[in-house]
Write a structure and sequence with these properties.
Structural class: alpha/beta
Bound molecules: S-adenosyl-L-homocysteine, iron/sulfur cluster, FE3-S4 cluster
Catalytic activity: N(6)-dimethylallyladenosine(37) in tRNA + (sulfur carrier)-SH + AH2 + 2 S-adenosyl-L-methionine = 2-methylsulfanyl-N(6)-dimethylallyladenosine(37) in tRNA + (sulfur carrier)-H + 5'-deoxyadenosine + L-methionine + A + S-adenosyl-L-homocysteine + 2 H(+)
Helix content: 25-40%
Largest sheet: 7 strands, parallel
CATH architecture of the largest domain: Alpha-Beta Horseshoe
Number of domains: 3
CATH topology of the largest domain: pyruvate-formate lyase- activating enzyme
Strand content: 15-25%
Strand order of the largest sheet: 1-8-7-6-5-3-4
Distance between the termini: 37 Å
Main location: cytoplasm
Shape: globular
Subunit structure: Monomer.
Radius of gyration: 23 Å
EC number: 2.8.4.3
GO molecular function, one term: 4 iron, 4 sulfur cluster binding
Number of helices: 15
Length: 512
């Protein structure tokens, strides 16, 4: 986004908001506006290779500590790694508790109402931290910060929040913090329209075994229920070479697995205007030729799942045989008003094509129940589709109206009780299929990338199989951590597998 567009965006919104909250505006005040967020900018996305911390901000964090709490999807988890990278470059140290933090950031998710409620609860809890230490800076960032209703609510009811910034201007964090320290006023800087693609942002990755790699930002699909196209802006792909450089660097540093990330990775490349055709299939092929042992990607939209992609995935090797393919509903009328742009039949045809080329593939999905006016019969179509595909797992949700989306304006005649009841019935089916998929592993051998010890016990190790099944297993010592190992499954549970270490398959040592 160029300067002119940005000023344009802020002019419109400032006029509207200035009256109500003017006491906060002496310094940076750039609030979000969902209507602006909907308008896709015509300007070409610019690629900046040159992120650098300005000299005047270096040392800003000296002697100070930061704490970040992350909500939402992998995109947010990865954004937190970037935020931590910037803060570390500024001289801040990480801390695990809010008690000794000088900066507390909540990286938020707006996908459903209960996700937002959790954040408001947490902001409330932080009031006592501010009372004990009035110098602490409390910040809200991420997808909720892109919503004007949220920003207004924070300004009105949560005086303890000092800074608010959005998903498009994370690289502005040094300026925002500096402004907050200098002015001692609230600093609100949210760009309603997406920014440019900025390469070489510093990152502090969580762990040295698995890494997230962004391949694109934003979403242009505008499913009628979804807030993401508003909070994340238009689709912007990173250049193939920049992605491949990042992957090669991760492989050289001993990372064992990468997940290519995007809201809708199947649209990758469409906006790039290259002289040649280059889509997700091409990118996956190039990524598979690097030395990284395992490659995953998320999230796929059934709409652009090309034959090229299926062919590339079918070559196997380091491309993991697990596809998360959200279906949302099994009924054509519901799919239509959701704006998903495929029918039940087309989805099933795609599943058939994928399974023809990859008979062993594990398929998982996302489902929304209780869409406005969803009938019992339409819900039944979702259950039958689930059975027909035989998904190995699903994330299931009750529809939650999101401010500014088309579905939020629809009348809804489905009672809360019916929605809960449908979710319960669907979840029973999901549990049944998940358990069934896991039970097939009894006495089988699987490959597991060991990530560390299990959550509950220090002498039990944990990791995921090629098909993303969680395995807890015994092993002689810590030598298995960070390696891909062969495990014999001794017990199957509802959501995980238990096993015994057999041998290390991949001897490469991972740097911490
Ligand atoms: N880009 C991904 C989805 C990201 S959001 C895709 O298109 O598949 C993750 C999941 O949250 C969605 O798949 C959907 O099932 C659910 N979701 C999104 N908006 C929702 C809403 N308003 N209410 C309930 N669930 C929602
Ligand atoms: Fe939301 Fe649809 Fe985009 Fe997924 S594809 S992020 S559900 S609008
Ligand atoms: Fe939530 Fe934003 Fe991800 S709304 S699901 S954190 S893109």
């Amino acid at each position: 986004m160029n300067e002119e567009q940005r000023l344009d965006a802020s002019k419109v919104t400032q006029k509207k908001e200035e009256k109500d909250y003017s006491q906060y505006f002496q310094h940076v005040y750039q609030p979000p506006n969902l209507r602006d967020a909907r308008r896709r900018g015509k300007a070409e996305v610019e690629y900046h290779m040159d992120f650098e911390i300005d000299e005047r901000f270096k040392g800003l964090g000296k002697g100070r500590k930061f704490f970040i709490r992350t909500y939402g999807c992998q995109m947010n988890v990865h954004d937190t790694e970037v935020i931590a990278g910037i803060l570390t470059a500024l001289g801040y140290e990480h801390t695990d508790t809010t008690d000794d933090a000088d900066v507390i950031l909540l990286n938020t998710c707006a996908i459903r109402e209960n996700a937002e409620n959790k954040v408001f609860g947490e902001i409330g809890n932080l009031k006592h931290v501010k009372q004990n230490n009035p110098e602490v800076l409390i910040g809200v960032c991420g997808c909720m910060a892109q919503e004007e209703s949220v920003v207004n609510k924070i300004l009105k009811s949560y005086q303890n929040v000092d800074i608010i910034f959005g998903t498009h201007n994370i690289h502005r964090l040094p300026n925002i913090l500096d402004e907050a320290y200098m002015s001692k006023e609230k600093v609100i800087e949210v760009w309603s329209k997406e920014g440019d693609v900025i390469e070489n942002l510093p990152k502090v990755r969580e762990g040295g075994t698995k890494a997230w790699v962004n391949i694109m930002y934003g979403c242009d699909k505008f499913c009628t229920y979804c807030i993401v196209p508003f909070t994340r802006g238009k689709e912007r792909s990173r250049m193939p070479e920049d992605i491949l450089d990042e992957v090669r660097d991760l492989a050289a540093r001993g990372y064992q697995e990468i997940t290519l990330l995007g809201q809708n990775v199947n649209s990758y490349g469409k906006d790039l205007n290259l002289d040649y055709n280059y889509d997700l299939g091409d990118l996956m092929r190039d990524v598979s030729e690097t030395d990284i042992p395992r490659v995953r990607f998320t999230t796929s939209h059934p709409w652009d799942f090309t034959d090229n992609l299926i062919e590339v995935l079918a070559t196997g090797e380091n491309l993991m045989p697990h596809i998360h393919l959200p279906v949302q509903s099994g009924n054509n009328d519901v799919l239509k008003i959701m704006g998903r742009k495929y029918t039940r039949e087309e989805y099933l045809e795609l599943v058939g094509k994928i399974r023809d080329r990859m008979p062993e593939v594990a398929l998982t999905t996302d489902i929304i129940v209780g869409y406005p006016n969803e009938t019992e019969e339409q819900f039944q179509d979702t259950l039958t589709l689930y059975q027909e595909v035989g998904f190995e797992h699903a994330y299931t949700y009750i529809y939650s109206p999101r401010d500014g989306t088309p579905a939020a304006k629809m009348e809804d005649n489905v009672s809360d009780q019916d929605k809960k009841d449908r979710l319960q019935r669907l979840n029973r089916l999901v549990t049944h299929y998940t358990r069934d998929a896991l039970s097939k592993y009894q006495d089988e051998y699987v490959n597991v990338l060991c990530e560390g010890t299990s959550k509950k016990r220090d002498d039990v190790y944990a990791g995921y199989t090629d098909k993303s099944k969680l395995v807890n297993f015994t092993a002689p010592d810590d030598g298995v951590i960070g390696k891909i190992v062969k495990v014999k499954i001794t017990e199957t549970k509802n959501y995980s597998l238990m096993g015994e270490f057999v041998e290390v398959l991949n001897e490469e040592k991972v740097e911490a």
